[in-house]
Amino acid sequence: MSLNGYEELEHIADLALKVWGEDFETLLRQAAFGFYHLMGAEIGSGPDTEEVFTIPQGSRESILVDFLNELLFMVEDAQMIFHDFVFERSERALTVRAFGCKSVALERTIKAVTFHELEIEQVGNRLEARITFDV
Hints:
The structure is a single chain. The chain is an alpha+beta fold. The protein has a single domain (about 5-135), classed as Archease, Possible Chaperone, Chain: A, domain 1 (3-Layer(bab) Sandwich). Helices cover about 25% and strands about 45% of the residues. It contains 2 helices and 9 strands; from the N terminus they run ββαββαβββββ. The protein has helices at about 25-40, 60-80; strands spanning about 5-10, 15-20, 40-45, 50-55, 80-90, 95-105, 110-115, 120-125, 125-135. The strands form 2 sheets. Strands 1, 2, 7, 8 and 9 form a 5-stranded antiparallel β-sheet that branches. Strand 8 (about 120-125) and strand 9 form a beta hairpin. The radius of gyration is 14 Å and the shape is globular. The model has no long low-confidence stretch (mean pLDDT about 95).
């Protein structure tokens, strides 16, 4: 298994992902890519748009949920799909610079990112998390 990535997990009623990365920022990126995969999101072509948003500091789990919920809002509100992220930490917040384009297709709707069974753990030389999405 590669150092960074994601895979869809079986779930009875909702959608779930296992994500992993060599550090927290990589874990966030992989969670975003897996999230878009679950939605069947197809990014359009054209010049990149940059969006900047901040997430208040908290636990790694709360930052992950807030990050994905912000991406969910941008998909719903502006049909934006992002392919690259730059993260900057301060004592108060995580600032995210996201680069992407409008979506040309979404196959599935996700209502929310949940804290159900969410725990970020160090496993060997990487971080792993299981994320459940309400559909």
